[in-house]
Amino acid sequence: MHEPSLCGKQFSAHFFSLLFARLPAPRTTEGEKFTNDSTKGKVVLLEFWTTWCVYCVAEAPFVDKINQEYGEKGLVVLAVNVAESKKKVKRYLDQHPRTTRVVLTDDTNLAAMYEATVYPIYVVIDRDGNIAGTQRGAAGEEALRDLLASGGIGPKDGSDTQ
Fold first, then answer.
1. How confident is the model over 30-55, as pLDDT tens digits?
2. pLDDT tens digits, 122-153
3. Does residue 159 belong to any structural domain of this protein?
4. Structural domain containing residue 104
5. Fewest CB within 10 A of the end CB: N or C in the chain?
6. CA distance 13 to 89
7. SS3 147
8. Is residue 11 part of a domain?
9. pLDDT, position 2
10. What is the C-alpha separation between 102 and 89, in angstroms, rounded?
11. Cα–Cα nearest to 83, from 106, 101, 60
12. Is residue 161, in this structure, part of any structural domain at all?
């Protein structure tokens, strides 16, 4: 089995655990903190986005829908805003509310780690802490659901996994 790659780099087992061990734990705009312990055994979807990205705006509703659908089934969705001020993001969220947890890059360097330069970028990390799949750019709800299935969330073959 080959090791997952992202941006041309190879990552081995327990990558996410190592990531959290080396970086400040991501915090949401509501102050919720994510650590190795809080994500252990869960599938994590990182959505890198910006307020000016029209594709991010278009995909936000179904990202939120998937978050609601699978949040109780072991999915943690973190919408990581890239390189924008807290004030700008707050103003944007006042006009475009999200149900997904929002993380600012002021609080973490996840965006740099994933070389987020095209938006949106989705990264799925499986229950064992391995990168299960990535998607650079918008591709619609079905593509995102397929990506999540590679991490063990949702139906890949018509059956729902947990």
1. 877 777 777 889 999 999 999 999 99
2. 999 999 888 899 999 999 999 999 999 999 99
3. no
4. 5-150
5. N
6. 33
7. helix
8. yes
9. 36
10. 9
11. 106
12. no
pLDDT digits (tens, 9 = 90+) for 113-123: 556 667 899 99
The string over 49-83, giving b where at least 16 C-beta atoms fall within 10 Å of a residue's C-beta and e elsewhere, is bbbebeebbebbeebbebbeebeeebbbbbbbbbe
Please say whether the beta carbons of 56 and 50 come within 8 A.
Answer: yes
| CATH number assigned to the domain comprising residue 83 | 3.40.30.10
The whole-angstrom separation of Cα 9 and Cα 50 is 24
- pLDDT tops 50 at residue 74: yes
- Give the global pTM: 0.79
Phi then psi dihedrals of residue 94, to 5 deg: -65, -35
Two tokens, residue 21 = 């061990």
Q: Domain for residue 103, yes or no? A: yes
83 pLDDT above the threshold of 50: yes
Number of domains in the chain: 1
Per DSSP, the residues of 53-122 read -HHHHHHHHHHHHHHHHHGGGTEEEEEEE-S--HHHHHHHHHHS--SSEEEETTS--HHHHTT--SS-EE
